[in-house]
Design brief:
Helix content of chain B: 25-40%
Number of helices of chain B: 21
CATH superfamily of chain A: MetI-like
Strand content of chain A: under 5%
Distance between the termini of chain A: 35 Å
CATH superfamily of the largest domain in chain B: P-loop containing nucleotide triphosphate hydrolases
Strand content of chain B: 15-25%
CATH class of the largest domain in chain B: Alpha Beta
Oligomer: heterodimer
Distance between the termini of chain B: 46 Å
Structural class of chain B: alpha/beta
Largest sheet of chain B: 6 strands, mixed
Shape of chain A: flat
Structural class of chain A: mainly alpha
Number of domains of chain B: 2
Radius of gyration of chain B: 25 Å
Number of helices of chain A: 15
Shape of chain B: globular
Radius of gyration of chain A: 26 Å
CATH architecture of the largest domain in chain B: 3-Layer(aba) Sandwich
Number of strands of chain B: 20
Helix content of chain A: 55-70%
CATH class of chain A: Mainly Alpha
Largest sheet of chain A: none
C-alpha cells in the first residue's frame, strides 16, 4: 500500500499509449515520438492527489460510508447544538420530564397502508430514559462526544506515529533503536489497563474534560503507525530523489518533511481512519467499564453501560447507541478501505478484467 | 512480414506467432501493446527481438509462455511447437512450461529462490514433469551444472544462490531453463544485469548450448552488440509492430526501415582497439597555466561501515578535473566508481586523503559550510524513475535547489525553470505536470535541468544513461555535451559503458576493486590500453556489427588464452 508502487503503476502505460494519429508525419525516433505525445497532451495535468481522489470517488462502499458519516456527524452537532450554539431539537439532554408510555420511542417509519402508524417522528423519537430525559438528545450528545474523542485520538496518534516512525526510519542506528524499543514498551502493556489508569488520572486533574481523555488515548495508540511509517521510510530513503535532495544541500528537516513523509501519505491516511475506528471502540469500552467519560457528560459507551439492564424490557435504550457505534465504526472502516484502494489501485477490479479476457478468448 | 528462412523447409517451428495482438485495459484507456505480429523461431536458431521500451517485445514473449496479467486481451496465435497457447487453460499450459518452453530472466539475483539449495531448485522441474526422481534427478542436475560450466558441480549443488556470483547464478538459471529439454527458450535480456566480461561468457555459453541441444532461442534485448554476437535473425519492433526482419547481416549492416537506421546510428561505438603496439600517442597537451581545478582527489580512501567492520570501497585513488573538462570513471560493478561520486556529493564521509572542490577540502568542512558548497555541484542519477519526487510538479523539481539555497524569489525561479526547460528542449507547459506523466528520457532531461539550476561548477553524472534506450541515450548524451559547451561546467561522468565514455569524456580513470588500474586521456587509455584489465574490458564489449563482432570474439579468445595458458 505504498505510494511508490502506484507510481510504477501509473508510469507503466505511458510509453506504450501511442497510436499515431492519421495524417501525422510518421515519426521514427522514440525521443521524437515521446516529445510529440507530450506536446499533444492537453487538458488538466493530474497530480497524484487528483488521481487518488478520482479513484476514491469511484469507490462505492467508501462513498456510501462518507455519506453516512457526514449524516451522523451533522445530526449530532446540529440537532442539540454545540458549544453554546442552540440546535434545532428543542429538548435538552439534561432535562428530565414525565415518562410517557413507558418511554417507548415515538418514531414510526412504517407507512399507514402497511399497517403502521404512518411516517412520524413524534415527541420522543428515540424514547425516554427512566427519568424522562429525551433519549434522542442524550444519544446525539453521546455521539458528539464520541466523534470528538475519535478525531482527536486519530489526529494525535497519527502525528506522533508519523514523526516517530519517520525519525527512526531516516536516522536508523541508535535513534531507531531507542524509538523502536520505546514503541515496543507501549505495545507490551495491555492498552485497556493503561488507558483506564491514565484516563482516570488525566480526567481528575483536568476536571473530567473529554479532551484530556482523548489526548491520553492518542498518546497510547500511535505505535502501529510508527512501525508502518518507519518501514516505508526505510525503503523510500534509498530512492535517488532523496539522495538528490541531500546532495543539493537540503537540511534534514526538509528531506524528511518535504520528500519523505508526503510520499508515505497513503499509509498515514489509511491508518488514521483505522485509528479513528479503533478510538471509538476504545472509548466505548472504557466508558462501559466506567473509566472513560463520566456522568453527567454522555457518550455512547456510557449510555450502553448505564442501560445494559434495560436490554430485556426497554431494548431501545440499548439499541440506539449501539447501532450508532456500529454505523460509525463500519463506515470509518469502509472509508479506510476505499482510501487504501485509491492509493494502491492494483488491489481492485481484478475480477471484472479477467471476465472480459475470457470472453475475448472464447 | 516474416522472411522465408532456409530452415522453413525442414518442418515445424519451435515457436511462432501468427498475427498476435495484445492490448491492456488500464484505468484511462486501452493500451495496444502488440499489433498483429507474426514471427517464427526454428529449432537451433537464435532470433533476436529488438526494440526500445514500449515496443512490445517483452509482452510478445510473455504471451508465448502465458504469463500475461489478467487485464491483457490477446488475439491471434502463439504456437509453441505447433500448439496454440493463446486461450489455453492454465492447467494444460503449466504442463508445457519447462518441457516445451522455458525462460531465462534478466535478473539472476531474483530469479532464484534464496532459501532453497541449487539442487532443490534444479530437480524441482524434473520431478514436477516426471522426468527423473531422487538420485536420478540429482545426477541429471549435476550434469546440467557441468554443462553450463559451474566448477565442482558435485560439491556446489548443495549450496545456496547467495554463494554464487552473478554470472554463475545466470548460468544456473540457464541450467534450469534447459533441464527439461525445451523446444524453445525465451531469453529476456539475459545479460543486461551483468558486467561486460561476464556478459561475454554468458553469450558464449548460450551459443554453445543452442548448437548442442538444437533449441530455438528467442532473444529479447535492446543491446545491438549482443544481437550481433549471438543472433541468426533479427526482428525489430517499434511501438507494437514489427518494422523489419531479416538475417543479422541484413538488418545490422543494411537496415532498410528508417527506424532501424536511426536506432543503429544512435548506438555509441568504440573505436577499434589497437593491440599491435604500434599506437603512437598524440603528444601530451601543454598544461594550460590558467587551468582551474574544479575537483581534485589525492590518495582518496572511502569506506563503508558494515556493522562494525570497515569495507574499503575506494583505495588510494587520485585524479584531477579542470574547468570545462569531462572525466570518465569506468569499471564493473563493485569497482567503487559510484562510491567516488557519492563522496563528492557528500553522501559518504571521506575516510582519508583529500577530496577538494575548487580547492576546499570536503573532508575538513563543517556541516553548514558543506551545505553551502553543494550549490556548486549538480547531480544526475541513474534511474530517472526514482530521482524525481513523485509529489512535486516538474517546476518545483527544477527550482528546488534555488529554494534550498534561498536564491531568488518566486518570479525569478519560474523564469529560471522556463529557461532550463528550453535548454533541455521540453515545452514550458510541463512546469505544472507531474513526473509520472513523462517518459524516462524526458524525466532524465528534467534531472539535467535540475542539476544546472544554480549554474554549477561541477556536474556529477552517475550512470545517467544506463537506464535509457539507445536512441534516448544518444539524445541525452548530445544534450550533456551541448550544455557543457555553453555552461562550461566540469563533469565527473561515471559509467560502465566504455563506448559512452569514449564518446564524451576527455580523461578517464579505469577502476577495479576500488583501485585505479589505469588513467589518462581517453585517446590513450581506450585506444591503446596498457593494463590487462582495460584490455579485457574493451575486448568484452560487443559491437553492433556481426562480422566485426566475430573477429573481436576471436581476438578476445586469444587474449584470454594468452593470459591463462593452462586453461
Amino acid at each position: 500500500m505504498s505510494g511508490v508502487k502506484d507510481n510504477e503503476e501509473l508510469r507503466g502505460p505511458h510509453n506504450m499509449k501511442s497510436d499515431i494519429e492519421p495524417g501525422e508525419q510518421q515519426l521514427v525516433s522514440l525521443v521524437e515520438v515521446e516529445d510529440a505525445e507530450l506536446a499533444r497532451k492537453q487538458g488538466e495535468s493530474r497530480s497524484q492527489g487528483q488521481l487518488v481522489r478520482r479513484r476514491f470517488f469511484n469507490h462505492k462502499a467508501a462513498m456510501i460510508s462518507t455519506v453516512v458519516l457526514v449524516f451522523i456527524t451533522l445530526m449530532a452537532f446540529t440537532s442539540i447544538g454545540f458549544a453554546g450554539i442552540p440546535g434545532w431539537w428543542g429538548k435538552s439532554y439534561m432535562m428530565s420530564g414525565t415518562v410517557i408510555n413507558g418511554g417507548a420511542p415515538t418514531m414510526s417509519l412504517l407507512p399507514s397502508w402497511l399497517g403502521g402508524s404512518g411516517l412520524a417522528i413524534g415527541e420522543h423519537p428515540f424514547g425516554q430514559d427512566n427519568t424522562g430525559k429525551d433519549y434522542f438528545a442524550l444519544v446525539m450528545r453521546g455521539t458528539q462526544k464520541s466523534i470528538i474523542i475519535a478525531v482527536t485520538v486519530g489526529a494525535v496518534a497519527t502525528v506522533i506515529g508519523a514523526i516517530v516512525g519517520a525519525l527512526a526510519g531516516y536516522f536508523r542506528g541508535w535513534v531507531d533503536e531507542v524509538l523502536m524499543r520505546m514503541t515496543d514498551l507501549f505495545i507490551v502493556i495491555p492498552l485497556l489497563v493503561l488507558a483506564a489508569v491514565l484516563g482516570q488520572m488525566a480526567g481528575s486533574k483536568l476536571g473530567g474534560s473529554i479532551f484530556a481523555l482523548a489526548l491520553v488515548l492518542g498518546l497510547l495508540t500511535w505505535t502501529g503507525l510508527a512501525r508502518l511509517v518507519r518501514g516505508e521510510i526505510l525503503s523510500l530513503r534509498e530512492r535517488e530523489y532523496v539522495a538528490a535532495a541531500q546532495a543539493m544541500g537540503s537540511k534534514t528537516s526538509r528531506v524528511i518533511f518535504k520528500h519523505l513523509l508526503p510520499n508515505t501519505i497513503g499509509v498515514i491516511v489509511v491508518n488514521a481512519t483505522f485509528a479513528i475506528a479503533g478510538a471509538i471502540l476504545l472509548e466505548t469500552s472504557l466508558s462501559f467499564l466506567g473509566f472513560g467519560v463520566v456522568a453527567p457528560e454522555s457518550s455512547l459507551g456510557l449510555l450502553i453501560s448505564q442501560y445494559q439492564n434495560a436490554f430485556t424490557n426497554r431494548p431501545w435504550l440499548f439499541w440506539w447507541p449501539g447501532m450508532i457505534i456500529v454505523a460509525i465504526a463500519l463506515s470509518v472502516n469502509f472509508l479506510g478501505d476505499g482510501l487504501r484502494d485509491a492509493f494502491d489501485p492494483r488491489q481492485t477490479k481484478k475480477t471484472r478484467r479477467r471476465k472480459k479476457t475470457e470472453e475475448g478468448q472464447a | 512480414m516474416s522472411i522465408a528462412s532456409e530452415q522453413a523447409t525442414k518442418g515445424g517451428t519451435a515457436l511462432s506467432f501468427e498475427n498476435l495482438s495484445v492490448s491492456f485495459e488500464t484505468e484511462f484507456a486501452d493500451v495496444h501493446a502488440v499489433k498483429g505480429l507474426s514471427l517464427e523461431v526454428y529449432p537451433g536458431e537464435v532470433v533476436a527481438l529488438v526494440g526500445e521500451s514500449g515496443s512490445g517485445k517483452s509482452v510478445t514473449s510473455t504471451a508465448a509462455i502465458g504469463l500475461l496479467p489478467p487485464n491483457a486481451y490477446i488475439t491471434g496465435k502463439a504456437l509453441v511447437g505447433g500448439v496454440n497457447v493463446v486461450g489455453m487453460p492454465e492447467s494444460k499450459l503449466r504442463k508445457m512450461r519447462a518441457t516445451d518452453i522455458a525462460m531465462v530472466f534478466q535478473e539472476p539475483m531474483t530469479a532464484l529462490n534464496p532459501v532453497l539449495t541449487i539442487e532443490r531448485q534444479l530437480t524441482e522441474s524434473l520431478e514436477l514433469h516426471g522426468l527423473a526422481y531422487g538420485k536420478d534427478a540429482t545426477a541429471r542436475a549435476i550434469e546440467l551444472l557441468e554443462m553450463v560450466g559451474i566448477p565442482e558441480p558435485r560439491k556446489r549443488i548443495k549450496q545456496y544462490p547467495h554463494q554464487f556470483s552473478g554470472g554463475q547464478r545466470q548460468r544456473i538459471v540457464i541450467a534450469m531453463a534447459i533441464s527439461c529439454d525445451p523446444k524453445v527458450i525465451i531469453a529476456d535480456e539475459p545479460t543486461t544485469a551483468l558486467d561486460v566480461t561476464v556478459q561475454a561468457e554468458i553469450l558464449d555459453l548460450l551459443r554453445e548450448l543452442k548448437d548442442k541441444l538444437n533449441t530455438g532461442i528467442l532473444l529479447i534485448t535492446h543491446n545491438m552488440g549482443v544481437v550481433a554476437d549471438l543472433a541468426d535473425r533479427v526482428a525489430v519492433m517499434f511501438r507494437g509492430s514489427l518494422v523489419e526482419t531479416g538475417t543479422v547481416d541484413q538488418v545490422l549492416n543494411h537496415p532498410e526501415h528508417p527506424y532501424t537506421q536511426k536506432l543503429l546510428a544512435s548506438v555509441p561505438r568504440l573505436a577499434v582497439m589497437d593491440v599491435t603496439d604500434t599506437w603512437v600517442p598524440e603528444p601530451a597537451d601543454v598544461v594550460d597555466p590558467d587551468r582551474k581545478l574544479v575537483l581534485e582527489a589525492r590518495n582518496l580512501v572511502l569506506e563503508y561501515d558494515m556493522r562494525g567492520s570497515k569495507f574499503r570501497a575506494v583505495d588510494d585513488v587520485s585524479f584531477e578535473l579542470g574547468r570545462g573538462e569531462i572525466l570518465g570513471i569506468v569499471g564493473e560493478s563493485g569497482s567503487g566508481k559510484s562510491t567516488v561520486a557519492k563522496a563528492v556529493l557528500g553522501l559518504l564521509p571521506v575516510a582519508s586523503g583529500v577530496l577538494a572542490v575548487q580547492g576546499t577540502n570536503l573532508a575538513a568542512l563543517r556541516p553548514k559550510a558543506a551545505r553551502a558548497i553543494r550549490a556548486k555541484i549538480g547531480v544526475i542519477f541513474q534511474d530517472p524513475a526514482a530521482s524525481l519526487n513523485p509529489r512535486f510538479p516538474i517546476g518545483d523539481c527544477i527550482t528546488e535547489p534555488m529554494v534550498v539555497h534561498k536564491v531568488g524569489n518566486r518570479a525569478s525561479r519560474t523564469k529560471r525553470a522556463q529557461e532550463l526547460l528550453d535548454a533541455v528542449h521540453l515545452p514550458r507547459t510541463v512546469m505544472n505536470r507531474y513526473p509520472h506523466e513523462l517518459s524516462g528520457g524526458q524525466r532524465q532531461r528534467i534531472c539535467i535541468a535540475r542539476a544546472l539550476t544554480l549554474d554549477p561548477e561541477l556536474l556529477i553524472a552517475d550512470e545517467p544513461t544506463s537506464a535509457l534506450d539507445v536512441s534516448v541515450q544518444a539524445a541525452v548524451l548530445e544534450m550533456i555535451q551541448e550544455l557543457q559547451e555553453s555552461y562550461e561546467f566540469a563533469c565527473l561522468f561515471v559509467s560502465h559503458d566504455l563506448a559512452v565514455v569514449d564518446l564524451l569524456a576527455h580523461n578517464v580513470v579505469v577502476m577495479k576493486d576500488g583501485k585505479s588500474v589505469e588513467q589518462g586521456r581517453v585517446t590513450d587509455v581506450l585506444h591503446s590500453p596498457q593494463h590487462d584489465y582495460t584490455r579485457r574490458l574493451l575486448a568484452a564489449a560487443p559491437v553492433p556489427e556481426p562480422g566485426e563482432q566475430a573477429e573481436r570474439r576471436e581476438a578476445r579468445r586469444l587474449l584470454m588464452a594468452m593470459e591463462n595458458p593452462d586453461s
